[in-house]
Amino acid sequence: FITIHAFGEVVHVTSSLEETSPVYDTGIRFLDLDPIDKERIISHLFQCERIALRNRRNKEGICEQHSEKTE
């Protein structure tokens, strides 16, 4: 884990109920964020997206090696 210190403003909050506990989707506008920390956040988000896409692809039964068109 990497600790990032930043100041931000909550711009929206939505809640939903997943199984038995509430889940909150929170949007934050960063007011004071070091450029290096910004890159760390972006890198983490891209990593999460790659994992989610890979999991979705595997769930749909698509083979990763053959997911692109072959000639």
Distinctive features:
71 residues, alpha+beta, two-stranded antiparallel sheet, 1 helix, 35% helix, flat
Principal-axis shape equals: flat
* Total number of strands: 2
Which percent range fits the helix content?
25-40%
> Which secondary-structure class do the elements indicate?
alpha+beta
User: How much beta, percentage-wise?
Assistant: 25-35%
- Stretches where pLDDT is under 50 for at least 5 consecutive residues are 65-71
SSE arrangement, N to C: EEH
Major sheet description: 2 strands, antiparallel
How is this fold's topology laid out?
Layout: E1 7-18, E2 21-32, H1 35-59
Antiparallel strand pairs: 1-2
Structure in words:
- The protein is 35% helix and 34% strand.
- It is of the alpha+beta class.
- A two-stranded antiparallel ribbon has the order 1-2.
- Strand 1 (7-18) and strand 2 (21-32) form a beta hairpin.
- The termini are far apart.
- The model is unreliable at 65-71 (pLDDT under 50).
Summary of the model, kept short:
With 71 residues, the protein is α+β, with helices and mostly antiparallel strands. The chain is built from 1 helix and 2 strands.
